[in-house]
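Our consortium's second objective concerns turning raw sequence data into structural hypotheses that experimental partners can test. To show how far this objective has progressed, the report includes one record in full. It was chosen at random from the queue rather than selected for favorable results. The single chain below, 614 residues long, was entered without modification.
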Amino acid sequence: MKIIAFDTEVFFSSKLKYSLKTMVAEQFVKHELFDCYMLAVSDGSTTWAGHPKNFNWSALDGATLLSHNARWDETCYLEMVERGLAPKLNIPAWFCTADLTSYLCNRRALDHASEHLLGIKVSKAARNDSNGKHWPADFSEAEQKVMLEYCRKDAHICWTLWDKFSSKWPENERRLSLMTRLQGRRGVQINTELLDQYIIQSHSMKLATEKLLPWLSDTEEESWEEFPDKPTSTKAIAEACRRAGIPSPPVKSHFEDGEELYANWELAHKARNPWISALSSWRTVNRLYKTFLTAKSRLRSDGTLPFGLKYFGAHTGRWSGDSGLNFQNLKKRPVYCTREGLMETDETREPGDWVKYELDFRKLIIPRKDTVMIVSDLSQVEPRCLAWLCGDKAFLKLVASGQSPYEAAARTTLGWTGGDLKKENPLLYAESKARCIGEGTLIRTRTGYVPIEKIKETDKLWDGENWVKHGGVVNNGQRKIIWVGNECFTDDHKIFIRGNPVKAGDVPPGMCREELERQFSPDSEWLDICRLGSAVAVACSSFWLLACVLSLSKVWKKSVRSIQQFGTRVFKTLCGVFSPEKLGNSESRDLGIQTWKDRTNLGGTMESDNAAML
């Protein structure tokens, strides 16, 4: 099987805003400035670089191709085929080494990956120097030689990365990489009429908001002739603050906690200076307006919108947005326009007659002809799994019936028996989400963990899915708290112990968790997942670390199958250590291990029931 690295170089210009930093690949190649003036190929032993018209294209027929950013190079090749600049070839597979190195070491850029994995430093100076230059007219003879050598080296490093490390990239991950590229190129169908409407409406909101900025209104009472007529002019903002007798806002980029400092400044002065809220609204609306324009500029003739997405873009392995339009972070709540034509800034306000119209990017995405759209996602997976781990069957049954975890919690622990909780009793719904939290409890904010009593309205809090705003901490007064282990609760707060809800006030003082489990549910057969899971995790982590070290030192020569078998033996050893035969029947009942064999073989009745609920 022939494996050949393939790399292209094209004209780009930051000055003309013609760059992959601001454009998606499919948009870039359709531009009138598109010019692929160089390509480089390498099969490990031979490397070539030059103009595409001088290349022996038949050498690639039937070969598996590699590119460091296959989404771009494949799109570039397909465009050349469409323009008659390259022949249509049989290419059975095209792999992305940028995705490979992202998977291996979270380094996507070729120079970073090469230095980390191969110990080879790569200079991108030649590429940077080509900005705005046409080949060959704008390159000196020396610069042409440097560019050719730069392309040859890039292609050879791409091939070397694959040759040395492709065996460490699992097949399922390769398929995810390919699917990411294919889906991005295929794009999504857009409601073009609604998009045009959004562009007009968001522009109208911008203009209405600008009238609230004093340096743009320029009334007879105040003259702003000598100041820039730009909404975000720092000079004009500073002058507005001087006239209002308030300090100028901190520049966010000048401080590590610039976002928080600016938010505090805004909160302190916006009540007496409405233009401060208008300025923040203008930035939000303007950003949304530009997003709509970006989508409009990338639309294809069939109304589809290609998008960029990075496989393994985050260090956790999740995808991340790309190309200036982040499909991984579309705003959940629409932007509402009031009857006055302004953006509603209170995100907790429920829509009603006051809404003139709404702007919701998600509604732009519609199904293609003869298709339907589904939501393929795991909803509130953390509370659902947590309920299963602690055996809360009542909660799981309610969730399985279609209720939200918050309403299910209110019905099982707060005594709610009515209809739709969120509509009928939004305060109780909010309480179910937050519950009673004692003073000193650390709450996760965007700037770190903060005691609840020190939470400020400007702090954004993590709700399990996103960083969200809140209406401030509500002091519910002083109440007696009870310590259970290392946690404190109000006396009526219910704690789930082996699936049984127990009021904190009913727990004898000083009783540890294990004693609680024995007293309140002595017959329950449950798996101490946390303790056993920790033991397995530590053992397996140590094993894999050892395997990596041995692999790097070329001592480890066993197959992946052998590694899996060894891991299985470690796992079975741990099972044997915690088995009833080793511990004795009475002790195994206390530790909750009796159903271990059934659970590992998916034969336990309780596990089957819970799996069905989830």
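The partners drew two points from this record. Confidence is low (pLDDT under 50) at residues 522-535, 543-561, 570-614. The first helix runs from residue 25 to 29. Both points have been shared with the crystallography group to help prioritize constructs.
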